[in-house]
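Lab notebook, bench 4. We co-purified these components, and the gel suggests they stay together. Before we commit to crystallization screens, I want a quick structural picture of the whole thing.
Request: model the full complex, all chains together.
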Amino acid sequence: MATPTIPIPDHVEGAFDETQPPKFRGTYLEKVHGWVVTVDHKKIGLMYISYALIFLLVAGAEALAIRVQLARPENTAISPLVYNRIFTMHGTTMVFLVGMPILFGFGNYLIPLMIGARDMAFPRLNAFSFWISAFAGILLYYSFIGGLGLSGTGTAPDVGWFAYAPLTEKPFSPGHTVDYWAVSLLANGIGSIGTAINIIATIFSMRCKGMTLFRMPLLPWVYLTMSGLVLVAIGPLTAAQVMLLVDRYLGGHFFDTQMGGSSILWAHFFWIFGHPEVYILVLPAFAFANEIIPVFSRKAIFGYPAMVAATVGIGFISLGVWAHHMFTIGMTSFGNAFFTLSTMLVSIPTGIKTFNWLATLWGGKIRFTTAMLFSVGFLFQWLIAGLTGIMLSVSAWDWQLHNSYFVVAHFHYVLVGGILFMIFAAIYYWFPKMTGRMLNERLGKWHFWLMLVGFHLTFDLMHVPGVLGMPRQIYTYQADRGWTVWNEFISLGGFIQGAAVLVLVYNMVHSYFRGAVAGPDPWDGWTLEWSTASPPPDYNFAVEPVVASRRPLWDLKHPEDPDSAVE
Amino acid sequence: MGTVPLQHLQDEAAWQLPSRGRVGMYALIVAETAVFTIFVVAYLYYLGRDQWGPTPKQVLELPIFNTVCLLSSSLFIWLAERAIEHDNVKRFSLWWGITFLLGAIFLAGTAREWYKLIVHDHLTVRTNLFGTTFYSLVGLHATHVIVGLFLLAVVLALALTGRIGQKHSERIQVLALYWHFVDAVWVVVFTVVYVVGR
Amino acid sequence: MTTPIASSQDAKASHHERNSVHLPAPTPWPMLLALGFALVFAALVTSQGLAYLGLAIAVYAAIGWFRQVLPEEHVIHIEVETEVVAIQPSNRTVTRIDVDETHRAQLPLKTFTWISGVKGGIAGGIAMVIPAELYGLIRFHSLWYVVNLLGGAGVGDWTNPTMEQLTHFRLSAFITANIIQGVVTLLVGVLYGAMLPLWPKRPVLLGGIVAPVLWTGLLYGALNIVNPYLRGKIDWWSFAASQVLFGVVAGYTVSRLGDLKSLAQVPLAVRLGVESPGLEGGERDRGQRR
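Here is the predicted assembly.
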């Protein structure tokens, strides 16, 4: 065996924190006040996550409403107007009020812990970013009751989550429906950019001693890329929304086709944001997989440098693929070819990642905890989502299937089968760290299998009516179309997934009070967050850690064979 | 049973990380650049697509004096940065004040230009595509100038009341970075709107 | 935006004191500023009055925020109790692959540097011009026929040129042809650098004959679909001859620049660059384990 090249002192001082935070005993109001005024990254992270989980339930209920309406042909369970609002709000909520906040929440919570810092680089900006995003979400939902003042006749946005012009222009969307959409997402975007700046500054400037960029766990690397994407992607959306507001409030003509404005320009601007946004959402899912799969395979991640390169590569490539959402709008053949090829190019770094995860599993001593089950599910489903993505990237194929339920199935495979599965895995993995209690594994298995069955029932079958010609955002359909049976099973699967999420909710509430005590390191992990108490004290680490390898806790647990000796 | 601490590194002095203020400001500048890029693209895309006037050729004049004022303010803020680094608060206040003044002159110049365009040339946001894109792009830049001036004014007030010292030079430089960015954007806006677009 | 840079120094201090940590003090101002902004935004969709309220809150909060961080950041001190906690090293031992010192040193095995590929590509690219131009000169008495044919493939606006046009100089075609020729020969040269070690005993057979014949056949078949007109204009025998000449020259140059001989003894998997221990010197490895 190789001998360590770095001398290891033979005494220890505060390597492992087991100090408990001082128990806060105050009135209920004081507790609330404590959360409102906090600048602690852990509390803000938890607020992000719980805020997102609440909206996950809301948007999930909206999805079920859509499925109820589509379960039968010529159904009128909800009115067409409400239906338009529901699918618009479902999409907008899931992307902006669930996906981004929950991922920012995990980032907020984990990044300082993983890089051995006591807080984010700008703690007050962090609080500001959270609150502006939170208020933006509330403002968006206020539209349901805010517009006309009577409940049930609200003016929630009803233009689809991509809000194509010129439908969003004043003559076609009078009132304030579109304004609610633009204004609240504008405010939300400010919060997103603030958090992205914060994450970047934290990763560059707050690392503990010895934590070089190439010793960071992969999660901060991925979040660094994701934050860079947020910076360059949210800007175009913000700009486009400002233009839309100029049109609607000041009478401008950016997207006013009667005065020479261009609706295609909106499509370009929206998708310049919209496609990187997919990677903004999916990269953190990769980040969770990068942390969870090695720990439950009992092997170090395979190909760390390749993983970093692939992550950054995905970030760059994703900036040049946006118009594959616009093949049917009509572009030059050069444009079609370019965006087809650039889209296919994404599959190279993504493939590298998939193979590296498989190589990590290969020969490992795999422990199938619930977190690992979700991760393995993610690997399969992400592969299928990627394959349908390659199909759709071929412009000729896309002309046939664009805006059909095939596309809906494809991106839900990404968002649910990929991202949501990894979010669930992350909840099971880090819940013990955040609360000090383990989630119940038996309930977790129920959650996983229900979710898996429901997911495949819904989204595998959903490809079929798409190929049969069922368009996206359709209100209802005739019985003789041949879509009925498919839609019945799709809706059934939706409700199974709903039940699965309820199991998770029950599990979280139950385990928070009654769960087994976790201790600082329940999974035998290797990154720094497991070296401090669960939940960590306000200051994270009593002594600022110093690291010498990518797996500092491995070094600690295996002094006879530390990583730092071979690095 | 041995115990091992996490400390291995001995050369503590070697551990240097970039200033978070700077990193944060660069990140903000990247985000702002993305916003401006979209507005510039929209301006160029709609250039010359109007059915009726006024067109840029008819109404726009080269704002040379304004441009000189704004661009030279970058030089003065750089002098101010140097001064505060050497703990020369008096000189700092002088250069900082001149920077503020030049920025204010620029803003006043823009206001005069807009007044002329609105009152004499009857060009508003509603008139045509040129109006919409011109006021949005230049207005967005002017908004950044206003924010910058506000921050400059706060620092100036603190400096004049003697509450700024050498220890703040890092933060001052971060703020100056923003001002340099605002100036750099003007170079782009000037080129696109007044040189290429005319 | 001007958050102070205090905590890094604080952290250093705490490293020595070890019983008190400075953390940024809790503050309501960020939340209030966000509320103010949100109200201003909300005013856009509800009533104007909210904007004034929001603006007032925002200004108030901004001032509060400034006072929080200027001139000194407000911090709270938290007492830290550090206990010395012994970490139990894991009682599970780790399995590592047995490797000897030279394990990493074997791989990658000797291979060609990419620069030899580049040189081979350049040499072959120049050489292949000779038969192609000879054909053009003999058959059409024009230096430009071959150039135009190659360049015309990439010039979109030049559809179905006449023979008159093809035999005369045309700048865009000349530039395009040069770019195509340069890029493709360079890339193929680099590819040769990577590929030739596969068949080190007969580099000229693989690089000079087999590969050019294969891709000539591929082009012959594919061009029928891509550009039938162009296919009709190409004399395929001279085309193949120039391809083979390229292959021979490039292959010869590459194999001269790199040391091929020593590779010939090595198993194919190693020459492919498969990174697996025990392929070479396997006997010795096994001997050690026993």
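Residues 114-140 of chain C form the longest helix (27 residues). Worth comparing against the SEC data before the next meeting. The beta strands of chain C are 20-24, 75-79.
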